[in-house]
Amino acid sequence: MKIYTPQAILDQVPTKSLQGPAVILAGPQANLPLLVLAGIELTADFPQAEKQSTHYEIRDGYDFLSLSLPDLGMTGQALARMDAYLKADRLLVTGSQHLLDKLDRQLALARPPDRLPLQALILFFNSLLDEEAGLLDDIDDQIESLESMDEADPRERLASIVPIRKKLQGLKRYYQGLLEVFEEMGSDGNQHFSSDQIKVLRAQKKKADRILRTIVDLRDQLNQAREALQNQLDISLNETMRFFTVITAVFLPPTLLVGWYGMNLRMPELDYALTYPLVALASFAFIVLSLLFSKKKGWF
Questions:
Q1: pTM assigned to the model
Q2: Which domain holds residue 77?
Q3: What pLDDT, on the 0 to 100 scale, is given for residue 73?
Q4: Could you tell me if residue 240 is inside a domain?
């Protein structure tokens, strides 16, 4: 645990009550002493229908923020969580340790006047938006590489699309929730934010909206690449079917002859010595001419 104030940095709970604004970085969960230290009185009957989603709640006397960050590696599923209890002069943050460490590093490098609850929250949002904007550039490069891999097997390229699509889907859900968070924060129901801070939140909302539109564009681009690859597979399958159709048509007359002369009947032409070689020669000539004709037409 660590406590940041404009005057000092504390690594343990103070023996006396905190004076002035402070940012409290707790562990995975907020216990009662920390809530009391932050001046938070929990609303016991507050609905928890959105407990596992990214959302912002304006409660009686304080605001509650819950962030569910997606796994930015492969699956796009929720990986890290952060909960924040916000008052005008207090910010209590709990959640995944690496998110707390991120905010800890930012506050350690910040100027003392910027170690304020609302400023710390805005600083954290800025870092999230900057990092994930760079991630979208990497996804764009992956999609372009899929489109340029002409010699690779289309089936392998289609399989590599699946993790990218899952990642984009997770990011899309996350940014839709983040836009709702900025919208709710901008309403400032408890009047925690100054007019300048509201302007900063609006700017962050616009940036998140641009990132969301970029995600949607990348998803559309990925769908187009998937459809192009699927068309290649369909064309390959059609060529295979056409080849077998030509072969079947070429050997259909000889097959008819086999069935004709395979019947247990006395054929008059079988009395002549030249019947067999003539029938064999005619069959061979038909097969060769049919194959040459099909090749000339480009059927295989």
A1: 0.70
A2: 2-235
A3: 54
A4: no
